[in-house]
Design brief:
Shape: globular
Largest sheet: 8 strands, parallel
Helix content: 25-40%
Distance between the termini: 43 Å
Number of domains: 2
CATH topology of the largest domain: TIM Barrel
CATH architecture of the largest domain: Alpha-Beta Barrel
CATH superfamily of the largest domain: Dihydropteroate synthase-like
Order of helices and strands: EEEEEHEHEHEHEHEHEHEHHEH
Number of helices: 10
CATH class of the largest domain: Alpha Beta
Amino acid sequence: MSEYFRPLVQTGPVRPDTAVTLAGGVCWFSHVECLDRNRPSKVISASAVPGPWLQSFGAPRQPIAGLAFDAPVLMGILNVTPDSFSDGGCYDNQQAALTRAQQMVAQGANILDIGGESTRPGALEVDVDIEIDRIAPVIEAVRRWQSVPISIDTRKSAVATAAKTAGANLVNDVSGFTFDPSLAALCRDLHLPVIVMHAQGVPQTMQAAPHYDNVVLDVYDFLKNQIDELVALGLPRGQIIADPGIGFGKTLSHNVELLNGLSVFHGLGVPLMLGASRKGFIRAIGQPEDANDRMPGSVAVGLAALAQGIQILRVHDVAATRQAVNLWQAVVYGEYIGT
C-alpha cells in the first residue's frame, strides 16, 4: 500500500458542514493526514480522501456480542492466572474471580475479558489443559450469574472451544490468529466474533529487540492482512475488532507513536480496542513502579484514545475509568445524559 489516511479527529457538537462522522459515533473529522512511507505527510480535506477509505472511516460499526459502539465500551480484565504482570494470583480461584467479575460489572464494565495464560513479556506458554482448567469454571460461574458478554483471551482453539461451551461470546487472540492455524476456522464455525491483535513475536521473546520500518503503518498492514484473511475464510467483517497491541513487541517509542497515530486504524473499517492499562510504558513515562499505582496514567491514555475515536478500552481499573469517561463525555458535549 502506498498511501494511508489518518483522520484528524475532533469532538463536540459544533462542527463544519463538511465534517464526516467517524464510524457512526460521536467523533468527527474534516481533514486527514495523508501518510506515505517514502514522502513527508501532508494534511488534506476529507473531501479529497479516496472513496474506499472514506467509506471505512464513516460507516457505523455493527453491534458485536450484544455491544453497541455509539458510546465508549469498557472491557474489564479478569486474569485467572498466578503470574499476570499486574493482578497475577489475585483471582486464580473461582470464588475470587466471580466476586471480581461482579464488582467490575457493577462499576460499569460492558464486557469481561477472561484469560488463563499470562502474555506478559517473558511469559512461557501454558499447557492447554491447565489453561482450560483455569478459565472454564470461571466462565461457567459468571454465566450462571448473568448474561454479561464474555471474551476469552486465548491463542488456542481447544481453549476457545471449552470457553464457548462454558458460555463465552467472543475470542480475543493476542497473536492476531498467527499462533494456532485452526483457531480462525473454529471461530467461523462456532459463529464467534473475534478480536485481532498485533504482536511482534511471542511473549517469551517479544521484547528482546522489536524493530519496525514504520510502526504505525507496519501494524496497520498486519491488521489489514489478517482481517482480509479472516473475511476470506468466512468470518463476517462486521464481527471483527482490531487492537494495535500496545506493549506486545514494542519499545517505549513504538508505543507512543502508535498511540499518537491511533486514528489511522479506523481505515480498517472495524471497531477498535485499546489495551494499554497499567503497561510498562506508563511506568517509564509516569514513574509508578508498582503496576497497581498506574491507574492515573492508564486513564489518561484511555481518554486520549477516546478522543481519537477508539470504541473499546480494555482496563483493570473499571470504576476509575468509568468515572473519567462519564466526565469526559459531559465536558466534551456540554451535557450529561445518565444511563
